[in-house]
Amino acid sequence: MIASLRTVWTHPPSRAVALVFALVSIFVGSWFARIPEVQAALGLSEATLGLVLLGMPVGTLAVMPLTGWLVARWGAGTVTLVAALGQGLPFLLLPVVGHALSLGGVLFGVGLVNGTLNVAMNARANAVEERRGAAIMSTCHGFFSIGGMVGAGVGSAAAAVGLPMGGQYLFLIGGGALIVVTHRSGLLAGDDGHATGPVFAVPSSALLGLALLLFCILLAEGSVSNWSAVYLRNGLGASPGIAGLGYGAFSAAMALGRLHGDHLLERHEAGRVVQVGALLAAGGLGAGVLVGHPLAGIAGFFVQGLGFAVLVPAVYRAATQASEMAPGASIAAVASAGYIGLFTGPPLLGFVADGVGLPGAIGMVALLAAIVALGAGPVFARVGGWNRRRVERPT
């Protein structure tokens, strides 16, 4: 882990894009911590809030295909720089929203910027990897995980001291802009804006397979993120203070695993890493369900986080090798499928839980992880047939 952090931090282009990953998650994580406050201020029911919160994923999905074209035209570094500088602006409108519709519109704007950054920063990380000849993708996602925890802490602390959201986001925008501007040269280094390969093309079977894998992976992640506390509280009888530890354990394990992920992906075939990680997640989560104790459930979520940690970075990296499309367009295609899974997972799990109970629903997530393990082998074998570029371990 220390070696991965050093590899990223001592190389300006790598450090620049990793910090953008962290900033994206800090902004969103700080919003998540203030949702209950906004719900109370607007008098929204849970059902209405659920519909309003769809504004962000709808905006994210709407902009991803366009971002693939922008990255090919202007360069991943340039798009990342511009979007990172503007990412906090939609949040400044939160203090003035007066009803559910306006809140949904603001969150749609947040989703537009977030979706742009999601594609551009992953494409930029891939470009830095190729130019440098050293893997950084997983560590960048580790920075994203750390940023989420920092953002949740910032939002919680601001709410605790009564800091208005406008003040919170002015602070974050100022700090974020300073970081981005300071690392401008690193973001733009070698960014020629002329990616090879078409932006729109019929996806290869390998790319379609990766999209399906990411759909399943993020469906499982989204389900656990939204239902872990409910499962521990209502399904296993955990106290309110214990129930929240499930997602905390999952997030901590994700961050830990991602900071070790580049080491694994440099030394082992990516498909095998994905298979082993998915099997580990399935086994840990399944064992936690079978034991049926809150501590076992928390341990199961921790093991799932470790197993899932490297899956998304590995799929994004493989997407740039699995098609004749430009790297940004390939990432956009795969990410769009993944985000559909991420945002449909929680309601789908709710329907399953109504039919088979919460333990059975979480068991279905473990089964989904096992399906990912089975599918990873043939999908990554197809990627190997394309494999236009490979990250080699630096000598």
Question: Any chance you could write out the topology, listing elements then pairs?
Answer:
Layout: H1 2-9, H2 12-32, H3 35-42, H4 46-53, H5 55-74, H6 76-86, H7 100-132, H8 137-160, H9 165-182, H10 184-188, H11 205-235, H12 240-243, H13 245-267, H14 270-291, H15 294-308, H16 311-319, H17 327-356, H18 358-386
Helix pairs in contact: 2-7, 2-8, 2-9, 4-7, 5-6, 5-7, 5-17, 6-7, 6-9, 7-17, 8-13, 11-13, 11-15, 11-16, 11-17, 11-18, 13-15, 14-15, 14-18, 16-17, 17-18
If you had to describe this structure to a student in words, what would you say it looks like?
- With 395 residues, this protein is an all-alpha fold.
- The protein folds into two domains: 2-182, MFS general substrate transporter like domains (Growth Hormone, Chain: A, Up-down Bundle); 205-386, MFS general substrate transporter like domains (Growth Hormone, Chain: A), CATH 1.20.1250.
- The protein is built from 18 helices and no strands.
- It has helices at residues 2-9, 12-32, 35-42, 46-53, 55-74, 76-86, 100-132, 137-160, 165-182, 184-188, 205-235, 240-243, 245-267, 270-291, 294-308, 311-319, 327-356, 358-386.
- Helix 5 packs parallel to helix 7 (100-132), helix 6 (76-86) runs antiparallel to helix 7 and helix 17 packs antiparallel against helix 18.
- The longest helix is centred in the first third of the chain and has 33 residues, at 100-132.
- It is globular.
- The model is unreliable at 387-395 (pLDDT under 50).
